Amino acid sequence: MKKFFFLPFFFLVFTSSVFSKSSNEFDPFYVGIAGGYWDQSFKDHYTQQNIIPIGTQGPTYSNTDFHEQNIKSFSLLGGYGFNPFGLIFAAIEGNFNWYSSGKNFTPSEPFYTYSNFSQASLSQEYGMQVALLPGILVTPKTLAYGRIGYGYELYKNSYVTDIPVVFPKRFSNSPWISEYILGIGINQKLLKQISLRLEFQYVDVNNIPGVRGSTFGVPGPGPEIRLFNNHQDNYDLHSRVGLLSVIYYPEIFN
């Protein structure tokens, strides 16, 4: 009985191996370009220390707010795939990315009490990613795959206010931050050396350091001077990404 139980497994391994070696049309080395649309949501974790507390705020104040934005990306990519056995296919891929600007938003709790005079921004600039792409050959010309990756991206954020009595007027920061990537996609051969790839990704980035600094200001009709010390914004960014890629196989290893 056990012999019959294992027969389907051995049959699958044997037939998939024959199918792959005779019919796999995906060459090992490839390069390509990709365009992406990013739907992003992020948390703004705000903390400030008031050396001279005013009103209802105590010495320390914190708040969390949520924002959304959409950006576009352009990528140059390259990779090397291999077919270890049967229908199984895998690739190592790297890419360089450039992004459109993010949007401005009202911070969760601005330096000054009048929030309509203050504005913050958070944007991705450019970066790089590396990933493992395990997949399975659905047909000789169709490859379904997943993505497990790691990235390193440059972010820019700023805080600006035009209130006359608040100094300084602007803070900015440009940190490099790591990210984690999960994705699924389909790669369809169109011509011998050209394929079209459609992919969905989820990109998770935590603890992006925002602008930090101290601001002096006069809050109202009184003579009090308000000092916001160790102002800190930290962002948690979550992106849902749709990518369309054109892949070229130069056949240099054939």
Sheet with most strands: strand arrangement: 1-2-3-5-6-8-9-10
Shape descriptor: elongated
The overall pLDDT average reads 77
Low-confidence stretches: 1-22, 110-115, 218-229
**How many discrete structural domains?**
1
CATH architecture: Beta Barrel
CATH topology name: Porin
Secondary structure: number of strands: 10
Helix content: under 10%
> Can you tell me the CATH class?
Mainly Beta
- Termini separation comes to 45 Å
Helix-strand topology string: HEEEEEEEEEE
Largest sheet entry: 8 strands, antiparallel, barrel
Instruction: Give the oligomeric state of the chains in this entry, treating copies of one chain as homo and distinct chains as hetero.
Output: single chain
Q: What's the alpha carbon Rg, rounded to whole Å?
A: 26 Å
What is the tally of helical segments? 1
Helix/strand/pairing category: mainly beta
The fraction of residues in strands falls at over 45%
InterPro entries: Beta-barrel_OMP, OMP/PagP_B-barrel
Signal peptide: 1-20
Protein name: Outer membrane protein beta-barrel domain-containing protein
Keywords: Signal
Task: Tell me what you see in this structure.
This protein is mainly beta and 254 residues long. The protein is 9% helix and 65% strand. It has one domain: Porin. It has one helix and ten strands. The protein has an eight-stranded antiparallel beta barrel with strand order 1-2-3-5-6-8-9-10. It starts with a helix and ends in a 6-residue tail after the last strand.
